[in-house]
Amino acid sequence: MSSITSLGTYLPPWGTAQQRIAGDDEDALTLAVEAGSAALHGSGPVHRVTLVTRDFPLLEGGSGAVLLAGLGLDPDIEVTERIGGAPAALDAIATARPRTLVIGVDLTPAGAAAAVIGETGLTVRPVARLARSLPVRTRDANGASHDYGDPRLLRERGVLQSVRAVSAGEVAVIAGVDHKTATSLCRGTPPRLPTTGAAAAVFALAWMAETGTDGTLLGVEQATLTGLSVDAAAAPIVRNEPDPRPAPRTVRAPGLDIPISLAAYERAFDAKLRWQASRDPATGSLEFPPRSLIDADGRLVERGELVDLPRTGTVYTVVTVHVPVPGLPSPYSLVIVELDDVGVRALAKTTAAEPGSISIDDRGRMVLRRVAVRSGVPDYGYAFVPDAVPHTQKEIA
Rounded to an integer, what is the distance from CA 110 to the centroid of its chain? Predict the structure, then answer.
C-alpha cells in the first residue's frame, strides 16, 4: 500500500487538444523535470526519485544527474530508471517507499506526470498484476522499431484477454490504451488521457484525485497489466498544462554541429544545471557564470561559494535572431533576464513561445531545456518561459 501526498502534470504547449508534441528543446528529461517540479510544489522533502519511460535520452551514461539538477535536489539522492509503460509506472508507485518522487514520461504523444509518495493522502493498493508476452511492438538494441501491424490482435489477444484474466471487477480508469477501448471497458465515462505510456497511469491518478473517483485503475501495455485500487481521498495537484497551439515554423541550416568537449561539460555542469552563481567571500557579490577570483598578488584562487539563483525574473532586453545557425532551429529569440532580488542578469533562449513574441519587462521563469545535441550527447541548459503564454496552469487542493 502507498499513499500519494501530491501530484503534478505537464503538457508541452505545442500540438492539439488530442495530441501534444515535444518542442525542439524538449526530451524525456526536461518533461520529467517540469512534472516533477509541479508535484514537489508545496510537498515535503524527497529522498528518492524513480523515472519511468521508454524514451530515455541516454541508455548508457545515466540521466540521473541532469534530472536531480533540474529538480533542484541533492546530487546524492537515489535515482532509479525504469524502462516501461503504464504498468511499470503503477508498479513503481505501488512499491515506492515514503518520500519517493515517481515520474512517468511519454514522448508520443508528449506529456509527463509525477506523484510524491508519503505517509498520508490518496491511498493505492495493488490488486492485479499479469505478465504476458505479445510483442506486437518492439525496439531493438540499435533503436529500430518494429510494429506487427495488427491492432485487432493487440486488442483481442492482448488488452481484452488480460483484463478478463485478472477479474479486477468494475474498472474506473484504464491507462495505456486508446480512449475508445478504455470507454468500452470502464464503468461510466473515463477521462481522455493525453498520453498512452508511463505518464498516462499518473495522469489517470491525478484525474481520480481531482474528481474524487475511487475504484480500480488498470495500466496496460500490449498484454502486460497492473491494477491498483484507489480510494477517494484528496491529494493536491499542480497542473502545468498550457493551452495547445501549432508549433512555430522554423528551419535548420545545413552544416556541421559544434562538437562537445566533455571536459568543459563536466566543469560547467553544476553551475549551469543547478543554476548557481559564485559569491565573492570579500564583497558578497554574485558572479554568473561562476568564475575564479584573483588575490592581491594577481594569482588565481578558487572561485567563491556556489549559491542557488532564483528561477524567476523579468526581461531586461530581447532580440530575435533570423540568421540560420547550423544545428539550431531558426528563428529564435534571446533574452537577458534580471533575476529576482539578486542583481544578476542571465542570457537565455526563450521557449514555449513564438520567436519575437516576448517584450521587455515580461515576467517569467527559467526552465531546464535541451539546448543542443553535440557528438551524440544531450547538452542541457536553461531557457526562459514568459508568464504571459496562454495556459491552464492551476493548483488543486
Answer: 10
What is the predicted pLDDT for the residue at 168?
A: 62
Does position 396 have pLDDT exceeding 70, yes or no?
no
Burial class (CB in 10 A: 0-12, 13-18, 19+), 231: middle
Strand-pairing partners, residue 90, are: none
Asked if residues 128 and 166 have their Cβ atoms less than 8 Å apart, the reply is yes
Choice among 4-18, 58-72, 194-208, 281-295 with the minimum mean pLDDT: 281-295
Per-residue confidence (pLDDT) for residue 392, from 0 to 100: 43
Global pTM reads 0.92
Q: Would strands 300-301 and 293-294 be described as parallel, antiparallel, or unpaired?
A: antiparallel
Cβ-Cβ contacts under 8 Å for 291 (sequence gap 6 or more): 278, 303
Q: Based on the number of CB atoms within 10 Å of its own CB, is 322 exposed (0-12), middle (13-18) or buried (19 or more)?
A: exposed
User: Angle 72-75-80 (CA atoms, 0-180°, nearest 5)?
Assistant: 100
Whether the Cβ atoms of residue 172 and residue 213 lie closer than 8 Å to each other: yes
C-alpha cell at 190: 473515463
Q: pLDDT confidence of 299, banded at 50, 70, 90?
A: confident
Q: What is the pLDDT of residues 273-287, one digit of tens each?
A: 999 998 887 788 898
CA atoms within 13 A on the CB side of 153: 9
Cell matching residue 116: 510524491
The set of cell numbers assigned to 207 is 484525474
Give the Cα separation of 367 and 365 in Å (integer): 6
Cell numbers linked to 176: 495505456
- Round to whole Å and give the CA distance between 396 and 13: 20
Give the residue from 33, 24, 31 showing the smallest Cα distance to 273: 33
Instruction: Give the amino acid at 5.
Output: T
Task: Give the pLDDT confidence of 86-115 residue by residue, as tens digits.
Answer: 999 999 999 999 999 999 999 999 999 999
